[in-house]
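help with this record:
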Amino acid sequence: MRERESSGSSAAVRLRREGIIPGVLYGRGKTPHAIAVPERELRSVLSGPHGRHAILDVVLHGQKTSHASILKDYQVDPIRGRITHFDLHEVRLDEAITAQVAIELIGESPGVKEGGVLSALVREVSVEALPLEIPDRLVLDIGGSEIGTTLRIADLVAPEGSKILDDPDTVVVTVAAPRAEIEEEVPEEEELEEGEEAPEGEEAAGEEPAEQAETGDEGEPGTAEE
């Protein structure tokens, strides 16, 4: 890494065109320094075994001593996917720092094999440790998780020398029963087949009973004229 001579936006654009990423080194109460590093080297660090928790040695122009630093943040172009800027934080190797550490799930859940639904609610936790002892990741074994199982931060095991700072009761993983598919049964109307008689006591609409006698105008039974 090298110290940048100019920190203007035009200078940053020129550096990116040359494959060099501008950044800032700050921390420990010192004046921030504008620095730059080839993108290939920065990507190599991020994809290395320690990822974002790697300790970087920064040598500023005119100095012989290096500055132990950690990657605090970086920005990526959403279209090209290239790193456009990064921030380094200078640290002391003998003083504890706090870092976000990813949670890695291992094993196969018996509950999932039975149709259960696994939900990962927390992806990373805050860990305190010396810079060189910050773990790359924390492993959570879900091999014994049946349907109805709930795993919490308390189930994570931090390496010796490091401490998890988040609430131990925070839920990390759940294995829930599958949602039942409820099918509503709609009864079909029964239709009489052709030639089938209607049930007793039911008359066709608009028809009078066959046994009903014809009535006259006054409602009395009619008589034949002689």
